[in-house]
Amino acid sequence: MSKNKQDILLLSLNEIKDFLLSNGEKAFRAKQIYEWLWTKPVSDFNDMTNLSKNLRYLLADKFTLNAVKVENMQISKDKTIKLAFKLHDGMLVEGVLIPSENRTTACISSQVGCSLACEFCATAKMGFCRNLTAGEIYHQVVQIMNISKEKYNLPLSNIVLMGMGEPLLNYENVLKATEMISSEKGLAMSPQRITLSTAGLPRMIKKLADDNVKFNLAISLHSANNKKRSELMPVNRHNSLEDLSEAIVYFNDKTGTRVTFEYLLLGGINDSLADAKELAEYCKQFPIKINIIEYNSTNDARFVRASNENFDQFVTFLKSRNMVVNVRRSRGMDIAAACGQLAGKKKK
Ligand code: SF4
Question: Does the C-beta of 293 come closer than 6 Å to ligand 1?
Fold first, then answer.
């Protein structure tokens, strides 16, 4: 057996072709292999049933197929399914399947852990371990898609990069994975059904605009006050709300796409009428949608869910200012479905 095997998911179609030719195999097999990797993905070379046994053996001898494996699955009463995926090096990341009335969403991770240290986030407590490869990001979608069909007979309609990690700090791999998800050679899902969620890195948001991406962009805002936001999200200390708004205007001008703000309503922290007014004022600068999210409690006693009264007051105020507001109620509360809660538990 060869040592130092390469992950075959890192190879392009041409690179697979070159490998085959240099090993006395026919070039057309490259397309078949590529399809097994990306279009009808398998996680074992043995499942590539239209290849000869010898070729399957050769591939297994020279390469690894670092697809993700389901290590743990929890199903909530509300049908949300939380998954811990095991990577080839034993590390864990999370994915969630969220079936709702009119859509079936897969929430996937882009990094193992995260370096951005948001105060309210369970993943932040793990620190940063490593970036996921494009194949690892892609194969989470494949696994969740299969589980959705198996358990509920539902195809996936939407994908959100909102799990563990900051996708814009793993830029190349995330873009490659989203390209394959929307490619005919991959899962052929419209990029408009993919949403990348970021903590808000202005320089990288401008890069997305320059790269003319077609997927949706969501920004975790959580406060429209620099002091408060810097306390909740240390990333704001070097990327102020002013820098962020400049990047949003740039993104909006270049792509014509309306950005979404995610706003987690935390009791006594960012849920007052004054907070809502600051948010409405900030949002005057660009066309925007706002998702107001109910907090899913972790074991962190510093944060509690906003009271129903404050929640309603906040939403009502924004609506009175003619803002596009969606309310996202917490899902999978009985199975700790907030980002980082499951992998964090396993890690402990
Ligand atoms: S909320 Fe997102 S960006 Fe912030 S620490 Fe958690 S995973 Fe990282």
Answer: no
